[in-house]
Design goal:
By secondary structure, the protein is of the alpha/beta class. 36% of the residues lie in helices and 26% in strands. It has a domain of 166 residues: Rossmann fold (3-Layer(aba) Sandwich). The strands form two sheets. A six-stranded mixed sheet has the order 5-6-7-3-8-9, with helices on both faces. It has a three-stranded antiparallel sheet with strand order 2-1-4, with helices on one face. The radius of gyration is 18 Å and the shape is globular.
Length: 241
């Protein structure tokens, strides 16, 4: 994969928080059409990595690039190329899913018609009878689908996901995995920070394991069975590797 031009890239990235090194010499690349699953326990550096790509953290040394641009040098240009889906999608409960979609698109300078908004929501699997209901009545899985519809409407080149399947039931997690796979197949570069080994194996093309801010192992997802992935993850978590 190294011969393929990455859309998302970290080069020798170091991020310090006061006396704590959150990211320690990270090199990572994600080409277009690829899902990269970043595994690791709490404090491994996954969320710090996502935050640095978003421009929330300034690198202590090294660099990150989105489609060849640095968030430090061109924050507005980079944000236009990014879609971000956190663990808990921030939507307005008193608005419907449709209203949230059109509102957040308008904030990004994207105009969508009511019909286009309906189609975006249908494409992410949100049932038609929920489009005009208040988001306060939605499950977490339904909220994630609205978040995906907003990301899709933005026509981003990169999608960043932080624990996207946390709290989802198995059916909703499976639906979400299908949507992420479809987004990658349409050409997005996707970086997904997760604890969910099953989802990582199901959806990812490439998997990396982080520990103490370092990328300690990475491999193509198809080269490992689920039980082998679990063994690798636990070996690093327990300090056996």
């Amino acid at each position: 994969m190294s011969s393929i031009t990455p859309v998302l890239e970290a080069r020798n990235l170091v991020v310090n928080y006061k006396n704590h090194r959150a990211i320690d010499g990270l090199n990572l690349s994600v080409p277009a059409g690829t899902v990269y699953a970043l595994l690791g326990g709490n404090g491994a550096g996954k969320t710090s990595t996502i935050s640095t790509f978003l421009g929330f953290n300034k690198p202590t040394s090294g660099n990150v690039y989105i489609d060849g641009e640095s968030p430090d040098e061109n924050p507005a240009g980079v944000r236009a190329k990014l879609a971000y889906l956190p663990e808990n999608v921030a939507l307005y409960d008193y608005m419907s899913g449709l209203e949230n979609l059109t509102f957040f698109c308008a904030l990004a300078g994207i105009q969508v018609t009511r019909q286009q908004a309906y189609e975006q929501l249908l494409n992410t699997g949100l049932q038609a009878d929920a489009h005009d209901r208040r988001v306060s009545t939605y499950s977490k899985g339904m909220r994630q689908k609205v978040g995906l519809a907003i990301a899709s409407a933005k026509h981003a080149k990169v999608m960043l996901l932080d624990e996207p399947t946390s709290g989802l039931d198995p059916s909703a997690a499976n639906d979400f995995a299908k949507q992420i796979r479809a987004a990658a197949d349409s050409g997005l570069a996707i970086l997904m920070a997760t604890h969910d080994l099953f989802n990582a194996k199901q959806v990812a093309d490439r998997i990396g394991i982080m520990k103490a801010g370092r990328l300690v192992e990475e491999f193509d997802a198809h080269t490992v069975a689920h039980d082998e992935l679990e063994q690798k993850y636990l070996a690093h978590a327990r300090g056996l590797q």
